[in-house]
Amino acid sequence: MHYIIGQNLGTAMHNYLKITLFLTAGTLTGLLIDQLILKKLLRVFEKSKRQGEEAVVWSLRYWVILWAILIASDILVGQIKLESSVVKGFRQFFYIVAIISVTIALARLSGKLVDISIAKLKTALPGVSLLTNLARITVYIIGGLVLLHTLGISIAPILTGLGIGGVAVALALQSTLTNLVAGIQIIAGGKLKVGDYVKLETGEEGYVEDITWSNTLIRDLSNNMIVVPNSRVTTSIFKNYYLPDAEMSVGVPIVVSVEADLNKVERLCVEVGKEVIQEVPGAVKTFEPIVRFSSLSEWGLVVNVFFRVINPKDQFLLKHVFLKKITTKFQEEGIKFPIRFPQI
Q1: Which of 78, 75, 73, 133 is nearest to 97 (CA)?
Q2: What pLDDT, in 10s, does the model give residues 278-293?
Q3: Per-domain residue ranges for the chain?
Q4: How far apart are CA 170 and CA 177, in angstroms?
Q5: Global confidence as pTM
Q6: CATH class label, 161-243
């Protein structure tokens, strides 16, 4: 009796020792691969700007530790005397964890590769989260189907059910699907990209931050976020200040008295305009300011001074500086402003 107990105790101790050794070996192997190989490769690819290889290594990091432990565990269950049903259960659990982890890693990789591809084709495609999320969702769906197959669940009835239920889902999510399709149309059309400065027909304007599943996000100059459904963007009229390029003309209207010396007004506007162009960072330095008398009204003579700016946001500083300088200059030169100004 004591011999049997001692033999069982020795077997248990031997199994515990095996478990400790295998799990330690798996963990250390994973850490060595992650820290000594993948970490160094990541630095090399970052320095050489090999973005594709960098994305692959970035997606594998840390996961290799788990995979090394899973491989060691799978070998371990074959070394320990266990019932076949228990071994089968352990290995099925290992496969499930492996499938889930590989799916997550591939989803990260696919999203990263899509971002890299979009960055290389930035003149044709905007860098939006919609495309990245679509790539990741596709990988997750494939991973889910593989997982179901591993669990012994037949995929064919599920696919059939999805086909039949898809009609009902499409009707229930008609608004969501409309915005999703509209988002794809926005991306494919290339008339609106992340970073563009746009003005909607309702008056809101700002920079396009992102194009998501359902909405286009626009950040105005007050740093507030304007949320517009994608379907509204595709059916409404908007002005894109970045097409065909970001450089744009800016007209600054001023009103002078009809008794003013118009030649002098024109000359002073040009002189001050040249000073402002050299002073304001966003002004196009090679552009000569243009002065045009546009209309005569009961308040006085309306004069428009035209500039060009590199970016739409630069117009505000340019107008600010020009109006300050031209007002001071007119006062020094005795050019009168009307007592009451129109709404220009």
Answers
A1: 73
A2: 999 989 998 999 999 8
A3: 2-153, 161-243, 248-333
A4: 7
A5: 0.53
A6: mainly beta
